[in-house]
């Protein structure tokens, strides 16, 4: 959760920086002749070290991103940025949860089998309760029904497996929602921006190529931002789905192995 909060703080700081830069007016000075421009450029290159050049390039990229954000309009660009922040927060929380849900199934099965052979079901329950993860939880539910027969163990494992799968998939519908919302917000901003561009053309009374191109460029920025956010969240979504599929497959395989161990233990006890 600390990583999630750190990420939220980072994006909030980025949003505040963009808002502050929105109120600033950037002024640019041009040299009167090409000779003056070349002299100032060569002097700056000789004085700036390698680290300073990297910092200048980084600042230039940051300023470019801020400029595009402002040009796209803070209303829709801010909404797209909000979907990115919320989507990433949920996605990172899911990634952390899924990483903590993985269990060394083979090692756990060996421990359960040894516990059943040495101390019985109660000792095996102590082993599974001390292990985290959905596989260990399913083992616990199955071992608690061991005295009622193998059929009850199978039913308990299947029923609780569905519960654990629901816990693993928690939050994924929200990520899917943000994946769909980001491009739609971008398209909405583009349509509204195009309407504003045509209104400007109508007010000017003349179809100027620079006016048309500028309006269309600004309108398409929201679409680009929405598509970028959708791609980023889609990568996290697919990773979560793939991880969940692997855990579910591991749960099913481990459940079959647990039932085999219980049958073997019961036969040996008889």
Notes on the protein architecture:
The chain has 270 residues and is mainly α. The chain folds into two domains: 1-24 and 31-71, no CATH class; 73-270, no CATH class. It is built from ten helices and no strands. Helix 4 (74-101) packs antiparallel against helix 9, helix 7 (134-144) packs antiparallel against helix 8 (150-168) and helix 9 packs antiparallel against helix 10 (209-269). The two termini are 50 Å apart.
> Can you give the mean pLDDT?
74
Number of strands: 0
Q: How much of the polypeptide forms β-strand, as a percent range?
A: under 5%
Structural class: mainly alpha
Low-confidence stretches: 1-16, 18-57
**Helical residue percent?**
over 70%
Query: How far is it from the N-terminal to the C-terminal residue, by CA?
Result: 50 Å
Main β-sheet: number of strands, strand sense, barrel status? none
Main location: membrane
Membrane topology: Multi-pass membrane protein
Organism: Flammeovirga agarivorans
Protein name: MotA/TolQ/ExbB proton channel family protein
Please outline what is shown here.
This protein is 86% helix and 0% strand.
Outline the fold blueprint.
Elements: H1 2-22, H2 34-47, H3 50-71, H4 74-101, H5 105-118, H6 121-129, H7 134-144, H8 150-168, H9 172-204, H10 209-269
Helix pairs in contact: 1-3, 1-4, 4-9, 4-10, 5-6, 5-10, 6-7, 7-8, 7-10, 8-10, 9-10
Record keyword descriptors for this entry.
single chain; 270 residues; mainly alpha; 2 domains; 0% strand; rod-shaped
């Amino acid at each position: 959760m600390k990583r999630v909060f750190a990420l939220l703080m980072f994006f909030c700081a980025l949003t505040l920086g963009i808002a502050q830069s929105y109120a600033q007016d950037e002024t640019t000075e041009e040299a009167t002749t090409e000779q003056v421009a070349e002299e100032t450029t060569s002097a700056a290159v000789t004085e700036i070290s390698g680290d300073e050049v990297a910092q200048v390039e980084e600042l230039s990229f940051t300023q470019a991103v801020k400029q595009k954000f402002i040009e796209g309009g803070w209303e829709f660009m801010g909404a797209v940025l909000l979907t990115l922040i919320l989507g990433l927060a949920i996605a990172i929380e899911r990634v952390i949860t899924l990483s903590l849900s993985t269990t060394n199934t083979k090692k756990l099965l060996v421990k359960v089998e040894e516990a059943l052979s040495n101390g019985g079901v109660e000792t095996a329950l102590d082993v599974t309760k001390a292990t985290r993860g959905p596989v260990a939880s399913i083992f616990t539910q199955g071992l608690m029904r061991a005295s009622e027969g193998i059929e009850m163990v199978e039913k308990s494992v299947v029923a609780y497996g569905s519960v654990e799968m629901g816990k693993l998939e928690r939050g994924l519908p929200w990520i899917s929602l943000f994946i769909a919302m980001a491009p739609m917000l971008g398209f909405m901003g583009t349509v509204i921006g195009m309407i504003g561009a045509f209104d400007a053309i109508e007010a000017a009374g003349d179809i100027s190529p620079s006016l048309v191109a500028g309006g269309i460029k600004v309108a398409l920025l929201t679409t680009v931002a929405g598509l970028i956010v959708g791609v980023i969240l889609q990568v996290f979504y697919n990773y979560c789905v793939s991880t969940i599929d692997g855990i579910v497959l591991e749960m099913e395989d481990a459940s079959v192995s647990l039932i085999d161990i219980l049958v073997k233990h019961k036969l040996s006890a008889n």
